[in-house]
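User: Structure tokens for this complex, please. No commentary.
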Amino acid sequence: MQGAHNGSTARRRCTRCVLVERQPDVVLDERGLCQHGCRDPGVQVVSPLLESELIRRLERHRGRGRYDCMVMCSGGRDSVAALHLAVRRYRLTPLVFTFDNGFALPAGIENVARAVRELGVDWQLFRSEHMLPFFAEIVRSRASVPICPVCSLWSWGEAYRVAKEAGVRLIMTGYTRGQLQPGVPAGPDRRSEEDFPSLGQATREFMEKVRSVHERYRKFPRSMGELRRRHRRVEVLSPLWFQDLHKEEYTELIQRELGWQPVPGSWPPGSVNCSLNQLAAWLSIRHYGFSHHHIEEAARVRLGELSRQEALALLRLDLDDPETRGAVSASLTRLGCTWADLGVA
Ligand SMILES: [Zn+2]
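Assistant:
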């Protein structure tokens, strides 16, 4: 029924990945293949970067100050694994940073709390609801700006601020190889939001408006590129790019050593995203035919990490499903919005 709500049934989907045609962001050729790496035959094989290269880079930051680095940790499997690697494998002293936009799932925060306790490291939890009125405005105005990139700019702005205050020039994340990596320049195996011009344009225009209307946000970054340029001396990397670890392996490790637990109620299944995610993704699908999760899962399909069918099953977002409807309903209530604001009965 998702199609009936968002009109995406008429749109063609790339026959290799899961992206949906929408010019100029996703253009399908006569074979039905998109331009984001699907036109080359075969599975993209991306070998991990050498661990010796990671160690060389880490050594540049070790012992510079009170902390060697900052680790961004949401409590999800990948970011907790990155934290575990930073401390137990590379013997770094990190400051752990968690960002809560007001919709963080408590079970994710509890995972971080257990991990930092177990590892004996410092933790800064940034929690604020000051973007909620903007999110509400995006819903009510039916604007084409996708919520997640706006929130991502906000979270990265805070992360860079905290890193600067802590005297840190290395930020580590739990990004996997297929994942969208805000704050990190795109590479052959990495997609940036900037590869999707309409998404980037809508985000820039929205931020421009926010800056002009609110004195408090006058210096807010308009794009990830702008934010990166402001902080070009800060290195951002994920230890997971340099490992050939399998998800099952590190899941078992962090469960045993850090008491990590899966976070129920997060979408897509198996992730740890905030509870605004379903509403945000639904809005993005309505406007663009896809969300940033589709971009990420599409990359994983090309990398051969999962099949197209598996990705489509993960990405199912059906307002007739009681759990999805409940999550969207709770987000709307929290924002002071209604189903009527979505134009859905
Ligand atoms: Zn494709």
